[in-house]
Amino acid sequence: MILRVRCPQCRQEVPYEGNPHRPFCSERCRRIDLGTWASEGYAIPGQSMEVEEQSPDLGKNAGEENEPAK
Protein backbone atom coordinates (compact mmCIF):
# COMPACT_ATOMS: atom_id res chain seq x y z
CA MET A 1 0.00 0.00 0.00
CA ILE A 2 1.39 3.39 -1.01
CA LEU A 3 0.87 6.21 1.47
CA ARG A 4 -0.67 9.22 -0.28
CA VAL A 5 -1.06 12.73 1.12
CA ARG A 6 -2.67 15.93 -0.10
CA CYS A 7 -0.38 18.78 -1.12
CA PRO A 8 -0.94 21.58 1.44
CA GLN A 9 -0.85 24.16 -1.36
CA CYS A 10 -2.94 22.81 -4.27
CA ARG A 11 -4.65 19.88 -2.48
CA GLN A 12 -3.55 17.39 -5.19
CA GLU A 13 -3.10 13.85 -3.88
CA VAL A 14 0.53 12.70 -4.19
CA PRO A 15 2.61 9.74 -2.97
CA TYR A 16 4.58 10.45 0.21
CA GLU A 17 7.41 7.92 -0.20
CA GLY A 18 9.98 8.82 -2.83
CA ASN A 19 8.57 12.32 -3.34
CA PRO A 20 11.50 14.80 -3.10
CA HIS A 21 9.08 17.71 -2.53
CA ARG A 22 6.99 16.13 0.23
CA PRO A 23 4.59 17.03 1.62
CA PHE A 24 4.12 19.20 -1.48
CA CYS A 25 3.45 17.84 -4.97
CA SER A 26 6.10 19.94 -6.71
CA GLU A 27 8.86 22.51 -6.31
CA ARG A 28 6.37 25.17 -7.43
CA CYS A 29 3.95 24.48 -4.57
CA ARG A 30 6.86 24.30 -2.15
CA ARG A 31 8.11 27.75 -3.22
CA ILE A 32 4.63 29.29 -3.08
CA ASP A 33 4.32 28.10 0.53
CA LEU A 34 7.79 29.42 1.44
CA GLY A 35 6.94 32.79 -0.12
CA THR A 36 3.76 33.00 1.94
CA TRP A 37 5.77 32.42 5.15
CA ALA A 38 8.44 34.94 4.07
CA SER A 39 5.84 37.64 3.36
CA GLU A 40 4.21 36.94 6.75
CA GLY A 41 1.06 35.56 5.11
CA TYR A 42 0.95 32.83 7.74
CA ALA A 43 1.13 33.47 11.46
CA ILE A 44 1.48 31.23 14.47
CA PRO A 45 -1.10 32.17 17.13
CA GLY A 46 0.28 33.67 20.32
CA GLN A 47 1.60 36.84 21.82
CA SER A 48 3.91 38.98 19.74
CA MET A 49 7.50 39.02 20.96
CA GLU A 50 8.83 42.42 19.99
CA VAL A 51 12.59 42.75 20.16
CA GLU A 52 13.67 45.69 22.27
CA GLU A 53 16.67 47.75 21.26
CA GLN A 54 19.56 47.31 23.65
CA SER A 55 21.58 50.26 24.83
CA PRO A 56 25.22 50.43 23.74
CA ASP A 57 26.47 50.32 27.37
CA LEU A 58 25.32 46.74 28.05
CA GLY A 59 28.07 46.06 30.59
CA LYS A 60 26.90 48.72 33.06
CA ASN A 61 24.45 48.09 35.86
CA ALA A 62 21.10 49.83 35.73
CA GLY A 63 21.05 53.16 37.55
CA GLU A 64 24.82 53.78 37.38
CA GLU A 65 25.87 57.12 36.04
CA ASN A 66 28.68 57.51 33.57
CA GLU A 67 31.65 59.02 35.33
CA PRO A 68 33.27 61.95 33.51
CA ALA A 69 36.69 61.27 32.03
CA LYS A 70 39.54 62.74 34.08
Silhouette: elongated
CATH superfamily of the domain at 4-38: Erythroid Transcription Factor GATA-1, subunit A
Determine the N-to-C terminus distance.
Answer: 82 Å
- How would you classify the helix and strand content by structural class? alpha+beta
Give the beta-strand count.
Answer: 2
Please count the helical segments. 1
Rg: 24 Å
Which consecutive residue ranges, at least 5 long each, have pLDDT under 50? Answer: none
Strand fraction band? 5-15%
CATH class of the domain at 4-38: Alpha Beta
Which strand order spans the largest sheet, edge to edge or round the barrel? 1-2
Overall pLDDT metric: 82
Characterize the biggest β-sheet. 2 strands, antiparallel
- The helix content is 10-25%
CATH arch. level architecture of the domain at 4-38: 2-Layer Sandwich
CATH topology category name of the domain at 4-38: Erythroid Transcription Factor GATA-1, Chain A
Order of helices and strands: EEH
How would you characterize the overall build of this protein?
By secondary structure, the protein is α+β, with helices and mostly antiparallel strands. It has a domain at 4-38: Erythroid Transcription Factor GATA-1, Chain A (2-Layer Sandwich), CATH 3.30.50.10. The protein contains 1 helix and 2 strands. The chain has one helix at 27-38; strands at residues 4-6, 13-15. The chain has a two-stranded antiparallel ribbon with strand order 1-2. A hairpin with a 6-residue loop joins strand 1 and strand 2 (13-15). The protein is elongated, with a radius of gyration of 24 Å. The mean pLDDT is 82.
